[in-house]
Amino acid sequence: MDINPLANPKGVKLLCELCQIPAFLQCKFCNVTYYCSLEHQKADWIGIHEKICDRLAFLRQPVPFLASREDRERRQKEVQVKKIELIEMTRTLAQKMLFEGKHEEAVPAAMQSLRYSIEVYGVSTIELVPSYLILGEASVGLGKLTQAEEYLAKADWTVLKTPDCSRAIQSKLYRNLGLLYAAKGDFPEALNNFADDIYHASEEFGTDDIRTAGGYFHMGNVFFRQGKMDVADSLYRQVINIWYSHLADVLKSNTPSEEELAQSRTRILGPVKGMFEEMGSGLDEAQEAEAVQILNSIHDIREHQTTRLPQDLAQACHALAMLYFVLGDIKKAKEYGRKAIVASDQVKDDDFSQSLVEFMKLCERQGTVN
């Protein structure tokens, strides 16, 4: 995180990476990124620069002289590919930080994604919308609602003038508008936007997809804030059901059978361990963070409800247990698995109880190979 003091060479305009005012500090590692203050340099380093410093060194270095047209075209394509990779990486990281509640830290990554989206796609294209939405959501989280309105207005206008805009992008736009109105306390308008979010997500992915579940969750939060717990509970139940089914499918498709394990044990321990290590969540970093946020939020609500249904808490615990298992946190998986067993004592569902028993066996099996 070292920096170099910098006196701007005459005639060279150097601007701060975060605020675009004249810069006087230079990143000592990439030598192509500048800041107006130590505070902005630290904020950018924590938010994104540490992860992309070497990438920026490549993208911002002076273009080398290439004699042949073929070499110049190859170089141009390489730079374009690197920029697109950077856009996807910074968006995912920014969204992940938002789900983790790190709104301030998400801004530098979101700004990078917007900056390179403009370079690659132009100033008024639909490809810029995801970055506007992330910046809008970060602004809502920081309580900067006027700024959030500006970002979301840009996104809304771009969507309106793009007839073939995907339903996935429209879903995200309405979700962010819903969050903005909820922050303003305008619950009817928030619910209208979350309803539009769910509609477009359902059309694109299906009503029981994890990408639709976020709309149900935020709508549930609005009813929760209004004290309408019957409606909130039904929406939270829908969210848990969606994630529970998704995670159960991930476990089922990735878990080796007893026969496969027995065959591996006859050779060496390595193959057995490898079977488990190859298991993934099937989610990107942002979706993993979203799952942790949503499932923990609903679990906490369930745990403090005096009138909850036993099945609701048991299923929330089991879903969290499966999530932590596929994320590789076996300690937390066992913890929530045991909580699910306790909560399920009053649940008369043999299939659910059996699935819990099998899951705890899987956790113990995983523990023996780590």
Automatic annotation (TrEMBL):
Entry annotated with the keyword Ion transport: no
Entries under InterPro entries matching the protein: TPR-like_helical_dom_sf, TPR_rpt, Zinc_finger_MYND_domain, Znf_MYND
The keyword Transmembrane is annotated on this UniProt entry: no
One Pfam family from the record: TPR_12
First and last residues of every TPR repeat: 171-204
SUPFAM superfamilies, alphabetized: HIT/MYND zinc finger-like, TPR-like
Native organism taxonomy: Eukaryota, Metazoa, Spiralia, Lophotrochozoa, Mollusca
Domain MYND-type intervals: 16-53
Record keywords: Metal-binding, TPR repeat, Zinc, Zinc-finger
The protein's name in its UniProt record: Zinc finger MYND domain-containing protein 12
